[in-house]
Amino acid sequence: MNIIFFGTPEFAAAHLDFLVSHHISVVAVVTAPDKPAGRGKTLSQSAVKRIALQHHLPVLQPETLRSPQFLAELESFKADVFVVIAFRMLPQVVWKIPPKGTLNLHASLLPDYRGAAPINRAIMNGEKTTGLTTFFINEEIDTGKIILQQSMEIGENETFGELHDRMISVGQQLVLLTIERIETGMVEAIEQSERLKALDKIHAAPKLAKADSQINWDNSLDHIHNQIRGLSPFPGTFVHLCNENGQKIELKIYRSEIERINCEKPDFSVLTDNRTYLKVALKGGYLMLKEIQLSGKKILNIKDFLNGFKFEGHWSVCESHCQCARNGLLAQKN
User: Fold this and answer.
1) Is 227 helix (H, G, I), strand (E, B) or coil?
2) Nearest residue to 206 via CA among 144, 142, 118
3) Nearest to 114 by CA among 83, 89, 79, 95
4) 210-327, which class in CATH?
């Protein structure tokens, strides 16, 4: 079978490279137009384009997917199947072109977590399992007939970045198997309504917003921990710490752990020995900050961070609790 591959970021690029390396006949690649990046505004190629050029594949970069010229180019390759991974929504005039259909890889067990950020949202919601789905694209986003699914466990402290990378190898095999089944006529695609019967609730996975990165310390210990790991390493979560002298710092948190214990310190207190640990007291225990970044500095594990920054005086988290000094909710150095 001849295939046209649609994708843009690293996640998609890894799948394209895998398919070509496994002798799948990719006759063309569709990706986003080059965009200015950096201070010099140099045109930057997508990860998928870089892989396509390495394999000497034709690359199409349409500004609009409904362009008559672009549609004519797609049809000229006479592809049997389109494979779409991490790309924008295709109009019907595109996904209806190939005779054997257009398949998509989605990073959840559909119909759960339909949307643009399924990996992030599953971790942020504290899910213990997730998975990958291949399905045929139809008129609505992430609602087409399911071809294959593969479930995966989510580790207690696993971050978005770690799960994302693990999903690549699982997704590669799933897409390859899906293509093989389509080619041999062994596909038994099922309506997503069949899967709905086994689910108590359907979660949405909308695109991440700036507000998702801001920690609300009134949330539970588990909620905050899941938020941190679900947004690490990108876009990350932000916190401000302040002391009784008015000093304030901004930290980006990339990794945390939970210490479940009865806290004797006031909620929102920041505790540290200035050598090995930095933690926030909350209901139900401590949020241990394991990997952080001071604004404008490098990402560091907590020991390296404390080698260069010392907390003097009493500190606390400082968001909705900016009046913490008057309320006695001050950090205490242990």
Assistant:
1) helix
2) 118
3) 89
4) alpha beta
Question: Rounded to whole angstroms, how far apart are CA atoms 135 and 304?
Answer: 46
Task: Report the alpha-carbon distance of residue 109 to residue 134 in Å, rounded.
Answer: 9
Number of H helices, E strands in the chain: 10, 16
For 302, the token pair is: 């907590």
Global pTM?
Answer: 0.92
Answer whether residue 259 shows pLDDT above 90: yes
Residue 161 CB partners (closer than 8 Å, separation 6+): 232, 233, 234
Q: For residue 58, what are the contacts with CB-CB under 8 A and spacing of at least 6?
A: 27, 28, 29, 52, 77
Positions of CATH 3.10.25.10 in the chain: 210-327
Q: Which of 243, 260, 265, 255 is nearest to 334 (CA)?
A: 265
| DSSP code at position 21 | H
What single-letter amino acid sits at 278?
L
Q: Which residues of 90-115 are buried (b: 16+ CB within 10 A; e: fewer)?
A: beeebbebbebbbbbbbbbbbbbbbb
Q: In Å, how far from its chain's centre is CA 16?
A: 19
Output the CATH code of domain 2-196: 3.40.50.170
pLDDT, position 295? 87
Bridge partners (DSSP) listed for residue 271: 279
Start and end residues for every CATH 3.40.50.170 domain found in the chain: 2-196
Q: Which phi and psi angles does 207 have, rounded to 5°?
A: -55, 140
Strand order in the sheet with 102-106: 59-60, 25-30, 2-7, 81-85, 102-106, 129-136, 146-153
The pLDDT value recorded for residue 246 is 86
